[in-house]
Amino acid sequence: MIFVHLSVATIAQRLSPPNKRYRKAILSVENANIRYRVDGEPPTIETGHLLFAAGTLILENGVEIEQCQVIATSGIADVMLTLEE
């Protein structure tokens, strides 16, 4: 199990390294809203699924985890990420 703290700004970033498959990801947002996409395309501050501060997202599909990208809707969001191999 890997635990990571991400500082997510208004530039989209991937959750996990490319070509590394995890079976489960638990993502919790601490202080600011984010948007995410699991189709490999980068979200923008206006597109993608909205996850509110204090929200949690659980992904249990290796392809979605590998392709998931996140972006803060404004400022910097503190995101806690747990990855299970």
Structure, explained:
The structure is a single chain. With 85 residues, this protein is mostly beta strands. 7% of the residues lie in helices and 45% in strands. It is built from 1 helix and 8 strands. The protein has one helix at 62-67; strands at residues 2-8, 13-14, 24-29, 34-37, 49-51, 56-59, 69-72, 77-84. The strands form 2 sheets. A 4-stranded antiparallel beta sheet has the order 1-8-3-6. Strands 2-7-4-5 form a 4-stranded antiparallel beta sheet, with no helix packed on it. The N and C termini lie close together (6 Å). The model has no long low-confidence stretch (mean pLDDT 94).
Amount of beta strand: 35-45%
Give the count of helical stretches.
1
Multimeric status of the protein = single chain
Distance between the amino and carboxyl termini: 6 Å
Using brief descriptors, characterize the structure shown.
single chain, 85 residues, mainly beta, 4-stranded antiparallel beta sheet
Compact summary:
With 85 residues, this protein is mainly beta. It has one helix spanning 62-67; strands spanning 2-8, 13-14, 24-29, 34-37, 49-51, 56-59, 69-72, 77-84.
